[in-house]
Amino acid sequence: MGFSISNNPHSHKRKSTSMIMLTVSLSMLPGIAALFYFFGWGVLLQIALACASALIAEILVAILRRRPLFSYIRDNSALLTGILIGISIPPMASWWLPVIGASFAIIIAKHLYGGLGQNPFNPCMIGYVVLLISFPVQMTNWLPPSSLMSQPLSMMDAISTIFTGFTSEGYSAYQLRDDIDGVSMATPLDTMKTAFSAGLTASDAFQYPIFSTFLGHGWGWVNLAFMFSGLLLLKLKIMHWHIPVAFLSTLFVLSVIGYLFSPDTVISPLLHLFSGATMLGAFFIATDPVTAPSSPKGRLIFGGLIATLVYVIRTFGGFPEGMAFAVLLANLCVPLIDYYNKPTIYGMKDGKC
User: Helix or strand or coil: residue 184?
Assistant: First the structure.
């Protein structure tokens, strides 16, 4: 009788990897419901396309590698990857974006390195960044929330726009955004970035319709929903608290310091915390057990590093949102973080008996 040695993810709870992945996927339902409420049917369609693409890619890889098909599908990692990719894509983006993103995440970012537990980079973020760099116009074409649109889009409009590029009345996604949003962008972070580039102040930017509520119309509720889901996972002990706490606290401290120095030219702390992918990233992306450090101290450093990179990218970079780039850059540092934060062996002190 021998020992079975395997890579991450490891769990000390009596839950299988399949059950953990499924629990995380189901816990995202409040956030998905909020996205659906504010952005319509396109959210669900993008998630469905990404999940189907991820599962098909998983099946094809299992067949090519001659691995047991059922065990590959049963672990639910492809399902979770598809959900995260679908959430990250603008609701009215063309159908091939979630197909490419999810397929790349599964085939290249996951299985090229050996499969679940052996990938050094977060597959979802790899897929997202590939799309963002390759198709920046399509990936930043977020429509404003449905309540700010002059005409609501039905499910058939969403299907038609995603698969043909035009609504049933002949409007493209770009025309819909220009017709409704005019000068401003469709997301709070994008709006602030555009305003600062044009020489406007934060007070000027808050006059745009997207800020009919202080945290940005819809986006504050979306982040609150994902925060609720993340806290539920912490209560169920599905994830460790170190990364979300380190990430959110560091981002808050950095944004407060920046806001104290120049309140008219930087994003406010609350907007940093409750806009964009902040809560989704804190609880569902950065906490990936495969690509995060293994020690508690290492996870604290990892969360703080991601927050620092997110703040720098949002404040000084060319992209309004920096979560994906920050996570991938932090993934590069995980081996170094683990090397200098090895847990002390039982019975030893400072590496000596």
Answer: coil
Q: Print the SS3 string covering 284-344.
A: HHCCCCCCCCCCHHHHHHHHHHHHHHHHHHHHHCCCCCCHHHHHHHHHHHHHHHHHCCCCC
Residues 6+ apart with CB under 8 A from 94: 138, 162, 163, 165
Q: How confident is the model at residue 182 (pLDDT cuts 50, 70, 90)?
A: very low
Query: Helix H segments across the chain?
Result: 17-27, 29-39, 41-64, 69-74, 77-88, 96-104, 123-134, 136-139, 155-164, 173-181, 188-197, 202-205, 219-235, 242-261, 269-273, 278-280, 296-316, 323-339
Q: What is the tens place of the pLDDT at every residue in 206-216?
A: 888 777 666 77
- Tokens for 196? 């600062």
Q: Which helix (H) or strand (E) holds 120?
A: none
Neighbours of 148 (CB within 10 A): 16
Burial class (CB in 10 A: 0-12, 13-18, 19+), 17: middle
The DSSP letter of residue 115 is S
In this structure, what is the dihedral angle of CA atoms 286, 288, 72, 82, given to the nearest 10 degrees? -20
> Could you identify the residue written with the tokens 């020992």?
3
18-42 burial, b at 16+ Cβ within 10 Å, e below that, comes to eebbbbbbebbebbbebbbbbbbbb
pLDDT one-digit tens code per residue, 225-238: 999 999 999 999 99
Query: Could you tell me the pTM of the whole model?
Result: 0.88
Are 107 and 57 contacting, i.e. CB atoms less than 8 angstroms apart? yes
Cα-based distances in Å from 62 to 54, 98, 115: 12, 21, 10
CB 236 within 8 A of CB 176: no
